[in-house]
Amino acid sequence: MESKAFKELLAELDKLTPQQKKEIEEQLHRHDDIQTVIALIEKRMDTGSSCPKCGSSTKIIRWGLSAGLQRYRCGECKATFNALTGTPLARLRHKGKWLSYTQQMADNQSIRKSAHICSVHRNTSFRWRHRFLALSNEQKATSLTGIAEADEAFFLESFKGKKRGMPRAARKRGGKATKRGLSSEQTPVLICRDRTGCTADFVLKKIDKENLSAALKPLIATDAILCSDGEKALAAAARELGIIHRPVNLSAGIRVIGKVYHVQNVNAYGSRLKQWMRQFHGVATRYLENYLGWRRMIERQTEALSPQSILSTALRLNNYQQSMMT
Ligand SMILES: [Zn+2]
């Protein structure tokens, strides 16, 4: 802009209403955010790019710009792509709002509140949340060694967002189960944690030997020792897998065996998880894994999650299937 026109623009600023000033401020801020977001996205290509369609990396050339991002073309298969192709964030709009949205996630805001603060529709807020969580959902410990602790936690099943097939009358958000303990309204989750802090969790159909064995088999090293609160199905699963099992007997007041065998770490983790989940007022069961992943992401960090780190995490997933979630 020419300096004369710019001076005129500045003179005009005095005439703005407070609301208009606020809108200009937001617009400028959003513009900064877009630059930051685009820099974070383009950084993915710094380590060398390969074609998301055929995997070739020899004939990748720059091919113009699209939606503010560098576009590339593969000389082998002629496919065009950008740094977002294949990530959970591909084709999402409003990049200028992503950082303020991930800030809401860093602040553990609900979908509704985040939508309100970022001025996006609730459905957009919902879609963004689960896209940003797509990688953290996949990132769980694949092997526990040494002393591993296992415990179950139960989450009230939510049918929120399911328009059809509701098996019973809708319950008020975050309501209480009518039946205490394990019932058809509760989704069981197995949480396993070893003494180095490696954590894995599994949404189970049912707490029984079959489901527990399937979850534990690839996870627990054969020379690991599994501690539990003595759940019978877990004992049966450990026996089947040939894992040494040290059950503590909480009801008999025995909390620690041999000074080291206990479930205090996994219990504490479960308590923090349940406490943290409360603020979301009930999560639909099919999205529970994303929240479990989110919690693991929080627990892995020594500092609070930053909006940039949430964004960067989502960008590390490069084989995201659009059909997985909308
Ligand atoms: Zn290709």
Beta strand %: 5-15%
Number of strands: 8
Helix count from the secondary structure assignment: 11
CATH architecture of the domain at 142-302: 2-Layer Sandwich
Low-confidence stretches: 163-170
Strand line-up of the largest beta sheet: 6-5-4-7-8
The main sheet comes to: 5 strands, mixed
**What ions, cofactors and ligands are bound?**
zinc ion
| Topology as a string of helices (H) and strands (E) | HHEEEHHHHEEEHEHEHHH
Distance between the termini: 41 Å
Coarse morphology: elongated
Mean pLDDT: 88
The CATH topology of the domain at 142-302 is Nucleotidyltransferase, domain 5
Taking Cα atoms only, what radius of gyration do you get, to the nearest Å?
24 Å
Nutshell version of this structure?
This protein has 326 residues and is an alpha/beta fold. The protein has helices at residues 3-12, 18-42, 98-106, 111-118, 122-132, 134-138, 209-216, 232-241, 264-277, 288-300, 307-315; strands at 60-66, 69-74, 80-82, 147-156, 186-194, 199-203, 225-228, 244-247. The radius of gyration is 24 Å and the shape is elongated.
List the helices and strands and how they pair.
Elements: H1 3-12, H2 18-42, E1 60-66, E2 69-74, E3 80-82, H3 98-106, H4 111-118, H5 122-132, H6 134-138, E4 147-156, E5 186-194, E6 199-203, H7 209-216, E7 225-228, H8 232-241, E8 244-247, H9 264-277, H10 288-300, H11 307-315
Parallel strand pairs: 4-7, 7-8
Antiparallel strand pairs: 1-2, 2-3, 4-5, 5-6
Helix pairs in contact: 3-4, 3-11, 4-5, 7-8
The protein binds zinc ion.
